[in-house]
Amino acid sequence: MIQVQNLVKKYGDFTAVNDISFTVEAGEIFAFLGPNGAGKTTTIKMLTTLLTPTSGKIQLDGLDPTVHKNEARRKFGIVFQDPSLDSEQTAYENMELHAVLYKVPRKVRGERIEDLLKLFELWERRDDIVKTFSGGMKRRLEIARGFLHTPKILFLDEPTLGLDPQTRNQLWTHVKHLNETQRTTVFLTTHYMDEADRVAHRIAVIDHGGIVAQGTPQELKQQTNSESLEQAFLSLTGSSIRDESATSADQLRQVAKMWGRR
Amino acid sequence: MSAIYILWLRELKRYVRSKAQIAASLGQPLLYLLVLGFGLGPVFQKAGNGSYLQFVAPGVISMTILFSAIFSGIAMLWDRQFGFLKETLVAPVPRIEVMIGRTLGGATVAVIQGTLILVVCLIAGFRPVQLSMLPLAFVFMALIAIVFAALGTAFGSILQDMQGFQLIMNFMVLPIFFLSGALFPLTNLPRALAIITRLDPLTYGVDALRGVLINASHFGLALDVSVLCTIAVAFLSLGGYLFSKVQL
Question: By CA distance, what is B163's nearest residue in A?
Fold first, then answer.
C-alpha cells in the first residue's frame, strides 16, 4: 500500500531524511518511531504531498504523490501532529468544511459528524468557536475530523500527544476497528511505546534521518534482548536527548501570543 | 465547486465574526477621508479643482479595497502558522480551487469594506454625479478587489514570517496606494511620477471609480477596464502558480 525507496530530504546542508526504504502492506498498522527531530514528520509530509522529496521514490496505492498529487490525496486521511483547525469557526463548521473538501456524500455527512462528535464527546460544544476550546478538546476535534471520511490509508502523526488516557483509549479502539472492518492501512508515529506495542503490526525505528531497525514489536525486542519496546527503542536510539531548533512557525506563535491573537 | 464555495464562505464568516477587525480596518480610511477631505479642501478649491471631498472619496474607497484585499491574502500567513493551511493543502481538491475560494472570499470581504466606506462618504457629504452609474461602481470595486486579493495570495504563498510582511507593507502596498493618484489628480504631474503612476494597477481602478462616480476619468473607462482585466488574469495566474508551489 505504501512503498518508499531511497527517500531523501535535504534542507541545504542538513539531511532530514537520509535514504530510507520501507514497505507497508495493505491492511497493516505500521508504527514509525523515533526521537524528536529524527525525520518522522518530514517523512509524513513527503508521503502526503506537503513536501517534495530531494530524491527517492514513493508509491501510495500504486500512485506517485509527487506526480499524481490529487489522485494520491484521495487515498489518504491524516491527523497532524500540530494543530490544523480553523480556530475562528465552530467545531461543527470545522467538521463540515472537512466533509466538503473530502467529498463526503451529503446524505451521510450530518449523521457521521454527529456520531464522531458524540464519540469524542464534543457534541454538546459543537456550536462553540474552536478558539474557546481547551488543548485536549482541540486535539479530540482534530482526531474526530480525521475519521470523517474513510480513506484507504490513515496517517496519524503523534495523534495522542496531550490526550488523556480515556481519549487515547477511544482513539486506538477506533483505529483498530477501522483497520479490522475496513482494512484501513494505518501509518502512525508516537512517542508512547506501549501504544505502538499494543496496536502496531510492524514497526520501523528511525534516528538521525535513517531507519535503524524494522520488524514486528516481538522481533525488535528479541533483536535487542529487551523485555519492553521502550527498552528496545532506547537501546536502538541511545539515551541522549535531542533538541529541535525552533522554526519560524514557532517564533510566529510566540509573536501571536504576545499580541493576543487567538 | 463546493470546495470553492466552502472556502469562500469561511472567509466571510471570519470577517463577520471579527467585529474589532472591521472597526479597526475602517479607521485609517476614515482619517484620510475626513482629515484630508476637509483639511485639503480649501487649498484644492483655490487651485480651481472643485471639491476635494468629491475628488478623494473614490480614492479612499479604492484604498480600503486595496488594503483589505491584500491583507486577506497575507492572512494566509496565520493559516500557515496555525496549521489550517495544511488541512486544505492535503485535501483531495485541486490547489487552484483552494486558491480561488480563498481569493474570492478575500475579494468579497474587500468589496464589503469598500461599500461601508462608500456609505461613510455619502454621509460625509460625497455626492455621486449620476446615481444610475452606481451599479457600475460596484463592478469596478469588485475588479479592484480581485486584482489585489490575487496579488495578496501571491504574497501570502511566498511569505514565511512577519518580517516579510513589513517588507511587503512598506515596499509594495503603501507605494501602490500613494502612487495611484488616489490622493492627487493625474494631470500635470512631473514626468517621472507620471510614468510611475501609469505602472501602478490601482491607478486604473481609482480612475475607473472616478469615471463612474464623479464623471472625471483621466484615461477613459475602456482603457481602465482592459488594463484591470488583464492584470486580474495575470495576478490570478501568478497567485495560482505560487500557491500550487507552497510547501510546508
Answer: A252
In the sheet where A153-157 sits, what is the strand order? A76-79, A153-157, A185-189, A29-33, A202-207, A210-215
Burial class (CB in 10 A: 0-12, 13-18, 19+), A180: exposed
A7 in contact with B, Cβ within 8 Å: no
CA distance A98 to chain B (A): 8
Quote the ipTM score: 0.86
- Interface check for B10 against chain A (CB to CB < 8 A): the answer is yes
CB-based contact B90 A96, cutoff 8 Å? no
Chain-centroid distance of CA B172 in Å reads 13
CB-based contacts of A172, cutoff 8 Å, min separation 6: A195, A198, A199
Strands A185-189 and A29-33: parallel
pLDDT digits (tens, 9 = 90+) for B16-42: 998 888 888 888 898 889 898 889 889
HSE of A57, CA atoms in CB hemisphere, 13 A: 6
pLDDT at B223: 96
Residue A262's pLDDT is what?
39
The model carries a pTM of: 0.87
B35 touches chain A (CB under 8 A): no
Strands A185-189 and A153-157, how do they pair?
A: parallel
Query: Distance (Å) from the C-alpha of residue A248 to the closest C-alpha of chain B?
Result: 6
Give per-residue pLDDT as tens, A29-46: 999 999 888 899 999 999
Q: Domain segments of chain B: what residues?
A: 2-244
Residues of chain A neighbouring B21 (CB-CB closer than 8 A): none
For residue B85, give the chain A residue with the closest CA.
A84
Q: Which H/E stretch holds residue B169?
A: none
C-beta atoms of A97 and B162 within 8 A: no
CB interface of A with B, residues 23-62, below 8 Å: 45, 48-52
Are the beta carbons of A41 and A189 closer than 8 angstroms? Answer: yes
Segments making up each domain of chain A, as ranges: 2-75+151-258
- The CATH code belonging to domain A2-75+151-258 is 3.40.50.300
